[in-house]
Amino acid sequence: MALPRWFPLARNEARILLTSKGPWALAALLVLWAYRPSYIAWDGLGPDMTVGFVQTTATIVLPLGALLLSYRSIVGERRSGSLKFVLGLPLTRTDVLVGKVLGRSVGIAVPVTVSASALGLIGLVRFGLFSPLRFLAVLLATHLYVLVLVSLATAVSAVTTSTVRATGVVFGVVFLVLTVFWKLIASRIYSAVSGQAANPYDAPADGLLFALLRVSPDRSYRVLTNWILGVGNSGASYDAVITKLQTPTSISVFVVEAAFETTPVPFYLHEVTGFVVLVVWLVVPLGVARYLFERGDLV
Amino acid sequence: MTTPAIETEGLSKRYGETVALERLDLSVSRGEVFGFLGPNGAGKSTTINLLLNYAKPTEGTASVLGYDPWNEVVECHRRVGILPDRYDTYDGLSARRHLQLVRDTKRATDDPEALLERVGLADAVDQPAGEFSQGMEQRLALAMSLVGEPDLLVLDEPFTGLDPHGVALVRDVVAAEAERGATVFFSSHVLGQVQVVCDRVGILHRGRLVDVGSLADLRSKLDLGDDATVEDVFVDLTADSVRSGEGVR
Ligand SMILES: Nc1ncnc2c1ncn2[C@@H]1O[C@H](COP(=O)(O)OP(=O)(O)OP(=O)(O)O)[C@@H](O)[C@H]1O
Ligand SMILES: [Mg+2]
To answer: Is A195 exposed, middle or buried (0-12, 13-18, 19+ CB in 10 A)?
Structure first.
C-alpha cells in the first residue's frame, strides 16, 4: 500500500517536535499537574480514579502546551522562508496542512501517552487495578482533543500573515475564551439571551444553557471523558462532578443531572455531543483555513 | 517532449498599486539553460514565485513542463527542482534529514550523502543546518533542488552567498544538469557566470520583458560590438534605472 503523499512531511514535523525539549518538558509537567488523588474521587471511582488523572492532564496545561507547540507551524515558516521548501515539494497546499496537523499531533500525542502511562503506572501501584478499557478510551479521547487543538492552531497559523496576530487569536480566542473562561462567557451569553440568571449552585433546567456550555472543545472533551468515566453528564472536571452529585449546593458546577432532577433531559444534551462538538472543531476551522490557504499568495 | 519547459502568456502580477509583472510572454525550450536577468525589483522572483505556485497570478496563464503550475502542483513539482530565494532551513534538522524529506516526498531514490558530496558538504552530512554558514546553507539548498534528477531546475539567484569555489560549483552543476538533458531556468546578477552557462537570456525591467535571445542576438540587435558582454547588454537595456538609480520601485 502506498503511503499518502504528505507522510514524509508529517514524519518530519513529528521528528522536529520529538527531538526538541518542549514536548518532553510538557510530558513531565502533565504528570506533576494531573496526579491529584482525593477522597471524593476515590469514593466515586475507586481505582478508576487513575483514569481521572488522565482527564486532568487535558485541563489548562495540555491545551496551553499543544497550542504553544503548533501556533507558529505555518506562519513562522512563512516568515522565515522555510515554507518555500515545503511548498516546492510535490504536495498540494491541502497536503501541506494535513501533513502539518497530523505530524505535529503525533509529536504531542507521544509525550501525552508517556505521561498517561506514567500516571497509570503510579495509580496501579498505589490504588490498584483500574479498568484498562476506560483508561484506553480516555487516552484516545485525549488524543482527539490534541488533534483538535493542533488543528485549530494550524488553521489560524495558515491564514494569518503575522506571527503577532496568530499569537493573539490562538491565545486570546482558543485558549482564554474557549478554554479558560468559557464557563463564565457561556453563562453571560445565556443570561443575556434568556434574561435568566445562570446560577451554577442552582442551575435552571434549560437545555440552552447546557448546550452553550459544551460549545467549547475543552468542555466537550470533559463531557466525553466524564461519560467514559461514568461520573455524570457535565463539562466540569470528574472530581467536581462527583462532588456536585453528592452535595449539589456545595459547589459552583454545572451538571445536567443536578439541574434536570424533575424535568426530562433534552436529547441534544446526550454525552455523545461531546464527541460531535470535538469533531466539528476539528473539521470546520481547518476546512475554512484550507479554502483560504489554497487560494492566497504565500510569499 | 514537445511542450516547452516553461511557457507564459500575458502573465501579470500586481500587489495593490505595484505592478510587479506586466503581461509576460515567455517560452523556454526543453534542455535550454535560460538566464533571467534584470535590476533589483524587476520582477524576477515574482515570476518564479508564480511558476512555483508560491503566489497566484492576477492575470495570464502559464505551463511548466506542460502542467498548469497552480492546479497540477503535484505532477509538476515531482519533476521540478527548486532553489528559492530568501528561504530558511530547519535549524534542528541535519543536512541528511533535509534531503530525505525532499527525496521521500518526491519518491526518488537519491543517496543524501552522494548529493551532499556533490555540493561540497560531505563533511557536514549529519550537522544540524542551524549551524551552517550562509554559503553552506546555499549549498544544501542546491543539493535539495537536485533530488530526483528533475526535468526542470528553477534557481532564484543560485550564487547568493557563495565563495568563488561555490560559484564555480553552481556553474558546473548547471552545465552538468543541462548535459543530462534538464532545462535550467535561473535568475542572477552574476553576469559573468550567466554569460558562460546560458544558451539564452531574458532581460526583465520594471515588470516587462525588454528583450530575450542569445548573447549574439542581443549584441547585434543592440548594435553593440562583438566583444560586448552580458553586462553591456544589461546596462544598455535597463539604462534608465541605472542612470536615475530607480531600479527599485
Ligand atoms: N509580497 C509582495 N508584496 C508587495 N509587493 C511585492 C511583493 N513581492 C514583490 N513585490 C514587488 O514586486 C516588485 C518585483 O519584485 P521581485 O522580488 O520580483 O524583484 P526581483 O527582480 O526578484 O529583484 P531582486 O533582483 O532584488 O531579487 C518589487 O517592486 C517588489 O516591491
Ligand atoms: Mg529576486
So the answer is: exposed
Question: Does residue A41 carry a pLDDT above 60?
Answer: yes
Q: Is the residue at A136 inside a domain?
A: yes
Domains of chain B in start order, with CATH, are: 6-79+150-244 (3.40.50.300)
Per-residue pLDDT of B150-160, as tens digits, reads 999 999 999 99
Residue A40 lies in a domain: yes
Residues around ion ligand 2, judged by CB within 5 A, are B 44-45
User: How far is Cα A77 from Cα A89, in angstroms, rounded to an integer?
Assistant: 15
| Strand duo B6-15 + B59-64: pairing | antiparallel
A13 and A99: one domain? yes
- The grid cell for B162 is 557563495
CA A23, distance to chain mean position in Å, is: 16
Q: In the 8-state DSSP scheme, what is residue A92?
A: -
Question: Do A226 and A88 lie in a common domain?
Answer: no
Give pLDDT tens digits for A269-294.
999 999 999 999 999 999 999 999 99
A191 and A209 inside one domain? yes
Q: Are A32 and A132 contained in the same domain? A: yes
pLDDT digits (tens, 9 = 90+) for A98-117: 999 999 999 999 999 999 99
Segments forming the whole domain that contains residue A58: 8-174+282-295
- Coarse DSSP helix, strand, coil percentages of chain A, rounded to the nearest 5 percent: 75, 0, 25
Q: Which residues does chain B have within 8 Å of residue A7's beta carbon, measured at their own beta carbons?
A: 104
ipTM of the complex: 0.94
Q: What residue's CA is closest to ligand 1, atom 3?
A: B15
Q: Which residue of B has its CA nearest to A81?
A: B87
pTM confidence score: 0.95
Same domain, A287 and A241: no
- Residue B90, chain A, CB below 8 Å: the answer is yes
Check: CB of residue B11 under 8 Å from CB of residue B161: no
Domain count, chain A: 2
- For residue A187, how far is the Cα from the chain centroid? 20
Q: Which of B78, B86, B105 to mutate to test the interface with A (most CBs of A within 10 A)?
A: B105
Compute the nearest-CA separation of B169 from chain A (Å): 21
Contact A92 B82 (CB under 8 A): no
**A2 in a structural domain:** no
CA atoms within a 13 Å half-sphere pointing along the CA-CB vector of A29 = 15
Q: Are residues A75 and A131 in the same domain?
A: yes
Taking 50 as the threshold, does the pLDDT of residue A179 lie above it?
Answer: yes
Region B25-36: mean pLDDT is 97
